[in-house]
């Protein structure tokens, strides 16, 4: 994942993942496949009920597990042929990118995973939108920062109230 | 034929006698809004309006429900094109080419293509419904468990071709999707697979929360990851659909229309599979195959025409057999029953005019959809001008509501979040998301029909090969598998290339 | 339509006949007394505690997919309740895990009367036996709308002209005869298990994603037989695409005439297997006990006034061959209890029960 590809405008045209990343992915997926097979074998077979054992719940997921394991083995072999062992690890991406990503993910998890369901929905949404916008616009420099934060607060409040009103009054949902 | 035409004229007369224009206008708009919001599906829209229109009388209620259905399937593509987030599962295929077009500054044209394709698709399907409803319905009956298992297998084989360059990762993503579909209670013994005593997991992971996660949440994350001030494409291009786009791809439109209608008429297959199939077929037949996934007009046209033609298609078996062809059609059928309209094989005898009233409603809804398609383009394009720091958190809130909306469970929000994070990582590792979603859709189908087929035959696999339609589907699946062999060949060549010889 | 009305009356007589034979005369007298008492007491209670006026939309959770028979019933009930309650009544579908997920959510929701569950009462009564959910029928305030009967239907090409022929075939070579049902522990599956318990027949169980797909599988000939709810098969029976073999009811059931299709009388399974249990399968809505008393009082009053006189529910039940049974309270519980007793022990005998029904106070029927 080089710097050049970040500039590419199309997700579909980004450079392929590095062989090292593929190798690690293949290992994880192989373990997943094996685990699925093991869990499928451990499922009850219901031989007496069905008479044939053909309806055992483990057959289909077991097959998928085998396929995932086999395909990830192929992926791993391909990665090794392409130099997965020798490459000096995945190219490091810009520090700013990682920080922004982490911030977005953390805010998202905090909102959808923690706040929603504990705090009234409109408040949770308003806080989330405000925090998100304010945090990502913080680095634009100190000039007009107060104005941007005020705008973020207004957008947050507006989103929270509008979403709650539309969904509760128009679509008759009971929001968490 | 003339009989059908006069019946259709009667149908239009009936529809317009009840203040149709007014109801069609608001209902289609609600449908488009519901469709465009990630998470709110056509099924939910039709179910919601069933209750709301209960007191309006059966004629108005049916018109409203048909308009919402048609509008929602179309509306889902707005967010697919503009935000890379399919508004309904049906629009997942539209992201493949719609979003790249928008990123090239052609969002207006992409929506024009979508409008034209969708309009022609529903029109095509409605005409099929008017002309061939009874025979189509009877043919759908020929598709039993054996045939459906093949349909699912066929879908899995073509999943690799939706992977954009790396079939191996496409297949892995597809099997991951198939695996996700096995979580929860299975059909034969009600055994909860991979649930570990968790009651929510026993119910399985819903397609919708996963879809909103891998497209919505993952999209928000990757949008925010980029450099801070990257101007979102702000060029507003032509908003009027181009006649040339239609005339150039008339073959694609006809093929997608026929495929969409046909798949709609199959019970258990819905708009999503119609869109995927039309897309894959267009890619196979196209002279410019390499453009698919990078902003192909033909690809977007195929997906849009297919999903929209599926709507009338799904209503065909409702009217002729009381068998819904898709999930929204199931709710529409329930609404008909609640209103005492008794769809089913007796309808052709007891109330043949009703079939043509439904055709007229579909055409009215389709024309209203075209109207909105033309006037809404410019306001929708403004979305692209909003800075992502302000747009993305709102999108995230809408995703959360959408995941929650279908069943009102917090569990679904967590599924969305988890699927979003895993999906984001997989996307970063260049695993395509389309086969994953297709795997979840087809997994249920394959699992149930394969095992049921084996139960019915007592463990004998010959019916899978000897029943006439099974034979055809088997041949198709094998052909599709062989077709992808050059891909496998290329893969092997790549693997061997670095080896010194 | 005069023909239609005649059949309706005949069917009402049937329904009454069924009830009378099920309970003793004593029971019937108690019903009347209870009903009268409720009728007299209701206004007083309402005055004392104030009518329930929900300030937010009321939710009915349907623990099955949209479009099914529970969903249809719930939507009609919702629409009928909206006017007198003065508030929106919203139907939410939460399918999964044999209906236990949606029911659990209704159970865990705030006990303010704003969340109800819909479904078949027998399912609620058996969740604990199956180990799916820790609840019993007596934990709920029950309000029933319709009762459905199970039916065994045959494909016209299958060669089964009546129930007797099918029964003989199932007894002699049942392992090879497919029977389509809506899934494990669906009404149709329970009917087949009851038949098996009574006659030692065998069958090849093919599960589908609901009653409608199961019915269609029988129409298309994928399975020669199908065990579904009569509501699901009614149209295909009228169109002669399915042969109605027998209903699991104490008396024959008549499918009302429609258009130029005359009324069709479907024999009771008891003609061939006398004494086989044939309790009615009640469908309705319920709220967990612990909701405020005025909620229950208001709903009870609405049930005796609005629902009991709902023309829409009556028409719906009549057209789809269901019985219109606006029961509530203890009477509803006692009526549904019969099917719970029968079904819980079927699960136990079939090896599907996690706990013996005995330990839950469910006696064998």
TrEMBL record, chain A:
Residues 24-176 form the DUF1468 domain. The keyword Membrane applies. Keywords: Membrane, Transmembrane, Transmembrane helix. Coiled coil: none annotated. The keyword Cell inner membrane does not apply. InterPro entries: DUF1468. The chain crosses the membrane at residues 23-42, 62-80, 101-116, 122-138, 150-167. Signal peptide: none annotated. It comes from the Bacteria. This is Putative tricarboxylic transport membrane protein.
Automatic annotation (TrEMBL), chain B:
Residues 24-438 form the DUF112 domain. The keyword Transmembrane helix applies. Pfam families: TctA. InterPro entries: DUF112_TM. Keywords: Membrane, Transmembrane, Transmembrane helix. The chain crosses the membrane at residues 52-74, 111-133, 139-159, 171-189, 201-221, 318-342, 354-381, 393-426, 469-492. The keyword Transmembrane applies. PANTHER family: TRICARBOXYLIC TRANSPORT PROTEIN. This is Putative tricarboxylic transport membrane protein. It comes from Neoroseomonas alkaliterrae.
């Amino acid at each position: 994942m080089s710097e050049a590809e970040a500039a590419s405008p199309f997700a579909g045209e980004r450079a392929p993942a590095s062989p090292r990343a593929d190798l690690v992915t293949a290992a994880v997926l192989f373990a997943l496949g094996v685990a699925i097979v093991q869990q499928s074998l451990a499922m009850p077979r219901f031989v007496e009920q069905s008479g044939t054992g053909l309806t055992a719940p483990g057959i289909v997921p077991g097959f998928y597990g085998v396929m995932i394991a086999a395909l990830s083995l192929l992926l791993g072999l391909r990665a090794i042929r392409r130099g997965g062992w020798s490459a000096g690890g995945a190219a490091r991406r810009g520090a700013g990118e990682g920080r922004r990503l982490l911030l977005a993910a953390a805010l998202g998890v905090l909102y959808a995973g923690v706040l929603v369901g504990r705090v009234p929905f409109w408040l949770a949404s308003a806080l989330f939108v405000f925090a998100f916008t304010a945090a990502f616009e913080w680095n634009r420099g100190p000039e007009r920062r107060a104005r941007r934060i005020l705008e973020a607060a207004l957008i947050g409040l507006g989103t929270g109230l509008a979403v709650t009103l539309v969904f509760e009054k128009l679509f008759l949902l009971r929001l968490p | 034929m003339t009989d059908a035409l006069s019946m259709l004229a009667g149908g239009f007369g009936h529809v317009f006698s009840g203040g149709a224009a007014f109801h069609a206008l608001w209902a289609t708009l609600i449908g488009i809004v519901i469709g465009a919001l990630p998470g709110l599906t056509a099924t939910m829209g039709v179910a919601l309006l069933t209750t709301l229109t209960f007191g309006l009388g059966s004629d108005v209620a049916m018109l409203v429900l048909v308009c919402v259905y048609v509008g929602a399937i179309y509306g889902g593509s707005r967010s697919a094109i503009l935000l890379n987030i399919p508004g309904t599962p049906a629009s997942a295929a539209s992201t493949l080419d719609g979003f790249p077009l928008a990123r090239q500054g052609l969002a207006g044209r992409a929506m024009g293509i979508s409008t034209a394709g969708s309009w022609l698709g529903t029109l095509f399907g409605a005409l099929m419904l008017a002309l061939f409803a009874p025979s189509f319905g009877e043919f759908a009956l020929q598709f039993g468990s054996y045939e459906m298992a093949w349909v699912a297998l066929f879908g899995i084989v073509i999943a690799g071709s939706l992977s954009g360059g790396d079939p191996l990762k496409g297949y892995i993503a597809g099997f991951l999707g198939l695996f996700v579909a096995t979580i929860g209670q299975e059909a034969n013994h009600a055994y909860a697979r991979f649930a570990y005593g968790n009651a929510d997991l026993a119910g399985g992971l819903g397609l919708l929360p996963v879809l909103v996660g891998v497209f919505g949440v993952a999209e928000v994350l990757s949008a925010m990851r980029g450099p801070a001030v990257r101007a979102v494409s702000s060029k507003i291009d032509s908003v009027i659909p181009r006649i040339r786009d239609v005339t150039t791809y008339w073959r694609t439109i006809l093929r997608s229309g026929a495929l969409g209608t046909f798949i709609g008429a199959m019970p258990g297959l819905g708009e999503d599979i119609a869109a995927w199939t039309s897309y894959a077929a267009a890619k196979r037949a196209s002279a410019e195959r390499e453009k698919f996934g990078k902003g192909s007009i033909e690809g977007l046209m195929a997906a849009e025409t297919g999903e929209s033609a599926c709507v009338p298609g799904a209503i065909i078996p409702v009217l002729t057999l009381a068998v819904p062809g898709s999930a929204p059609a199931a709710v529409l059928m329930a609404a008909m029953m609640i209103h005492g309209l008794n769809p089913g094989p007796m309808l052709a005898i007891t109330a043949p005019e009703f079939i043509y009233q439904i055709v007229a409603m579909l055409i009215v809804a389709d024309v209203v959809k075209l109207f909105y398609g033309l006037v809404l383009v410019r306001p929708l394009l403004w979305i692209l001008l909003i800075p992502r720091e302000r747009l993305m958190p709102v999108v995230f809130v809408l995703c959360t509501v959408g995941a929650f909306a279908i069943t009102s469970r917090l569990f679904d929000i967590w599924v969305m979040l988890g699927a979003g994070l895993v999906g984001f990582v997989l996307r970063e590792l260049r695993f395509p998301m389309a086969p994953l979603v297709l795997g979840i859709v087809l997994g249920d189908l394959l699992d149930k029909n394969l095992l049921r087929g084996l139960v019915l035959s007592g463990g004998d696999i010959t019916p899978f090969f000897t029943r006439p339609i099974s034979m055809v589907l088997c041949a198709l699946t094998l052909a599709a598998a062989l077709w992808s062999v050059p891909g496998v060949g290329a893969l092997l060549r790549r693997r061997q290339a670095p080896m010194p010889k | 339509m005069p023909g239609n009305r005649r059949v309706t009356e005949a069917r009402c007589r049937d329904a009454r006949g069924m009830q009378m034979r099920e309970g003793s005369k004593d029971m019937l007298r108690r019903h009347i007394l209870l009903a009268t008492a409720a009728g007299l007491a209701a206004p007083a209670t309402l005055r004392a505690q104030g009518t329930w006026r929900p300030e937010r939309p009321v939710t009915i959770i349907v623990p099955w997919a949209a479009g099914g028979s529970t969903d249809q019933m719930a939507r009609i009930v919702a629409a009928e309740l909206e006017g007198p309650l003065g508030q929106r009544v919203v139907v939410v579908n939460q399918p999964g895990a044999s209906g236990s997920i949606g029911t659990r959510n209704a159970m865990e929701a705030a006990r303010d009367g704003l969340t109800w569950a819909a479904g078949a009462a027998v399912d609620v009564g058996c969740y604990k036996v199956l180990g799916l959910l820790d609840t019993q029928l007596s934990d709920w305030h029950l309000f029933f709308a319709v009762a459905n009967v199970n039916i065994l239907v045959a494909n016209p090409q299958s060669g089964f002209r009546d129930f007797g022929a099918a029964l003989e075939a199932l007894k002699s070579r049942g392992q090879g005869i497919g029977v389509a049902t809506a899934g494990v522990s669906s009404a149709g599956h329970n009917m087949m298990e009851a038949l098996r318990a009574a006659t030692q027949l065998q069958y090849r169980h093919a599960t589908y994603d609901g009653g409608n797909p199961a019915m269609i599988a029988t129409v298309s000939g994928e399975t020669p037989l199908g065990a579904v709810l009569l509501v699901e098969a009614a149209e295909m029976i009228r169109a002669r695409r399915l042969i109605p073999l027998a209903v699991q009811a104490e008396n024959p059931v008549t499918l009302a005439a429609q258009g130029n299709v005359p009324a069709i009388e479907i024999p009771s399974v008891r003609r061939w297997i006398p004494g086989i249990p044939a309790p009615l399968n009640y469908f309705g809505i319920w709220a967990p006990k612990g909701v405020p008393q005025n909620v229950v009082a208001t709903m009870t009053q609405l049930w005796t006034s609005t629902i009991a006189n709902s023309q829409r529910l009556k028409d719906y039940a009549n057209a789809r061959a269901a019985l219109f049974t606006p029961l509530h309270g203890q009477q509803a519980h006692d009526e549904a209890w019969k099917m719970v007793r029968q079904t819980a022990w079927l699960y136990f005998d079939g090896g599907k029960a996690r706990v013996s029904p005995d330990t839950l106070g469910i006696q064998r029927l």
